Amino acid sequence: MAKIGWIGLGNMGSPMSANLLKAGHELTVWNRTKAKADGLLDAGAKWADSPKAVAEASEFIFTMVLDGPTLQAVTLGDNGVVAGLGAGKVVIDMSTVSPAESAKVNDAVEAKGSKLLRSPVTGSTVLAQNATLGILSSGDKASYDKTLPLLELMGKNQFYVGPAEEARVLKLSLNMMIGVTMQMMAEAVVLAEKAGLDVTQVCEVMAGSAVGSPLVNYKKALISAGDYKAAFPVSSMIKDFDLAFDAAKQYGVPLPVTALTRQAYQTAVSTGRGDKDFSVLTQVLEEQSGYKR
Predict the structure, then answer these.
(1) What is the pLDDT of residues 93-104, one digit of tens each?
(2) Tally of CA atoms within 13 A in the half-sphere of 176 that contains its CB
(3) Ramachandran angles phi, psi of 85, nearest 5°
(4) Residue 107 and residue 231 in one domain
(5) Which end of the chain lies in a sparser environment, N or C, as judged by fewer CB atoms within 10 Å?
(6) Which residue among the candidates 52, 115, 171, 220 is catalytic per the annotation?
(7) Are residues 22 and 125 in the same domain?
(8) Could you give the number of structural domains in the chain?
(9) pLDDT tens digit sequence for 237-246
(10) Considering 162, 183, 213, which residue would you say is the last residue of a domain?
């Protein structure tokens, strides 16, 4: 069994790390709020007092944190992961961060004789609990091959996409498509609603049509009910859109549709919906159209 470290026990990190523990691996954890580790500690995980201590105790060190600045804090700080690394270890970051932020962490990890895998995930908290996430990975191929059995305990679909920052760019590209799809669906739903159609039936037809997708199927219930409890909040989608714009500047790619959709998400924030699920764009457009269910 592998000695695994895990840093970041939020809505995604907790169930993902729990699946590693259930498989019988030795798990050492750290989180800024220790109380979030209670369930894992009760199940047999060990607590470390710092990210550095996690790295010292582990062969594989996973990080799953909110954003790039947090990733750099837990890896590059005085008591960060890099300070606890030795030769031959593998750091696997599963967060969504920019290629530039990732490259800085990679340089520090490699300077200690270890390797960094960039392995952001696609999917919701439900998929994390069920170990059916999609995982995109890039970095050293030998390290990926060594880590793959652990990744397979958390995700159903595994993709190795290149030796450097490719997984970061692909994850941002996917989130762009997901975010834009919600604006497209909002426009279609509200048009149909204002024409007198039943919203639940409309969503069912969309899910079963040529435009149906796993995303449309995931979100049809929330939109039908008008209950936008967050699986992925608007604020996080805005963060990922802004990271995509940074990458687009780096690679010289215009993103006109993404830019327009970003404004729709900003409207959601400005009307007090930043903590709602990103599918709340339907509700925003209903208000803009003067429609009330």
Answers:
(1) 999 999 999 999
(2) 21
(3) -85, 150
(4) no
(5) C
(6) 171
(7) yes
(8) 2
(9) 999 999 999 9
(10) 162
